[in-house]
Design brief:
- With 425 residues, this protein is of the alpha/beta class.
- It contains 19 helices and eight strands.
- The strands form two sheets. It has a four-stranded parallel β-sheet, with helices on both faces.
- The protein is globular and about 55 Å long.
- Bound molecules: Double cubane cluster (BJ8).
- Double cubane cluster binds next to α7, α9 and α18.
């Protein structure tokens, strides 16, 4: 971290010693996994900088925004509509959920067999090491899986500003009505928090900013369809992760710059990968920073990841929001339409997700799919069994993995991944 941010972290109530420890681990992991890669696009330098300042400069920017009267809203899920947040001149940030921290304390609040993502959110809170969570004026919890839903009841006692959003589980007209009710309620809550009335123009502006961010990511994804792949899956994942933290306009420009560079690489058939390298699609639970374990294992085992069917990936970014409405009701309807298409495994039944995995595996010319589930994540682990069967019936090779954030199973995972890659070569 280049600046001196100690006072800022102190003012946020962080535990400085624990936070230093976290930054050391994060920095080491980043060096070993990211900086050890060969032939990275130069544009990734921007993301290296963002990561080196993820608890520093970015937090300072958020604090400056707050000092100027703006509000910060933290979220754990892609169902929280950024368009509405931006329309009120507020900023949406993803909250820390990608690493184990203060696990002993966490298990005083949550059962042992809770998924790593939920435990991690609590670990960052109880360990006092997430400056995003501590700087947020509102924290949005969403009723998705049962684990999160019940965990928010407990989190409510640990933070002063939790807002819980209900979400449907059926893709039915009634389900959509529930989402509509909840998005209007959220709009009102954001208006109350910020003191800004969200009108049509404001909402359209919010849509434009978020759509541009999505379009840049779509452009990056489309370039990954090239053979050989022009960029590593690890670097593309990082861009998808930073999507949740960075200033959206700056992020869009930075991703587009990388895309310009990748287009040249494709023209010159340059890059770090050979045409013969097996191409992998990852599908399943989201991978938040610094959860890079499985992609790192895959890409140090002779394969390249070409797509992520994940909320930190194409499930989260794939559809744009229609921006043609002329009343606030019409524009809100467009926001609701867009988010109602997200095919999270909490929906039942959820056939769209299988279709999307097949579609992605063809579009990205994947040689195999790795289904990634976090241990104790019932929605994704349960759904992975019929998905595996359906993919096998279509002769798409599949490997099903369930793991957590610990490093204990690295050897075992590597053996399984290497065997799978050998099989699809
Ligand atoms: S829209 S995927 S971001 S809920 S891993 S906490 S499901 S037990 S994260 Fe998600 Fe929104 Fe859905 Fe996407 Fe529960 Fe599973 Fe844990 Fe999970």
């Amino acid at each position: 971290m280049s600046g001196d941010y100690k006072k800022m972290w102190e003012s946020l109530g962080l535990d400085l010693a624990a936070h230093d420890e976290l930054l050391d681990i994060l920095g080491k992991g980043y060096r070993d996994i990211y900086l050890a890669q060969k032939n990275r696009p130069q544009g990734m330098g921007y993301f290296d900088f963002v990561m080196s300042e993820v608890h520093g400069l970015r937090i300072k920017e958020l604090m400056d925004e707050k000092a100027a009267g703006k509000k910060i809203i933290g979220s754990f899920c892609v169902f929280v509509p950024e368009e509405i947040v931006l329309a009120a001149d507020a900023t949406l940030v993803g909250l820390c959920t990608g690493a184990d921290f203060a696990m002993e304390e966490v298990e005083n609040y949550l059962p042992r067999n809770t998924c790593a993502l939920i435990k991690s959110a609590f670990g960052f809170k109880l360990g006092k090491v997430c400056p995003y969570l501590e700087s947020a004026n509102m924290i949005v919890g969403e009723n998705t899986c049962d684990g999160k839903k019940k965990a928010y009841e407990t989190l409510n006692n640990l933070v002063p500003n939790l807002y819980v959003m209900d979400l449907p589980q059926f893709k039915s007209p009634e389900g959509k009505n529930l989402l509509k009710t909840e998005y209007w309620r959220f709009k009102n809550a954001v208006e109350e928090l910020t003191g800004v009335i969200i009108d049509t123009q404001r909402l359209l502006k919010g849509i434009e900013i978020v759509n541009n961010k999505r379009k840049a990511i779509h452009r990056l994804s489309a370039l990954r369809k090239a053979v050989p792949a022009p960029v590593s899956g690890l670097d593309a994942l990082l861009a998808n992760q930073v999507f949740f933290y960075d200033n959206p306009v700056r992020f869009t420009g930075s991703v587009n710059k990388i895309c310009d560079e990748l287009e040249k690489r494709i023209q010159n058939r340059a890059g770090a990968f050979s045409e013969k390298m097996p191409r992998i699609l990852i599908s399943g639970c989201p991978m938040a920073v610094p959860n890079w374990k499985l992609p790192w294992i895959i890409e140090t085992s002779g394969a390249v990841i070409v797509g992520e069917e994940s909320c930190v990936g194409e499930r989260g970014t794939r559809n744009l929001t229609n921006n043609t409405g002329s009343t606030v009701e019409e524009v809100m309807e467009a926001v609701i339409d867009r988010y109602f298409k997200i095919d999270c495994a909490i929906f039942t039944p959820n056939p769209d997700r299988l279709d999307h995995i097949v579609e992605m595996s063809e579009a990205y010319k994947a040689d195999g799919v790795i289904l990634y589930g976090l241990q104790f994540c019932q929605p994704y682990l349960m759904e992975s069994m019929p998905v595996e069967k359906a993919l096998e019936e279509k002769n798409i090779p599949v490997l099903r993995i369930d793991t957590d954030y610990s490093m204990e199973d690295i050897g075992q995972l590597k053996t399984r991944v290497e065997a799978f890659i050998e099989l699809i070569k």
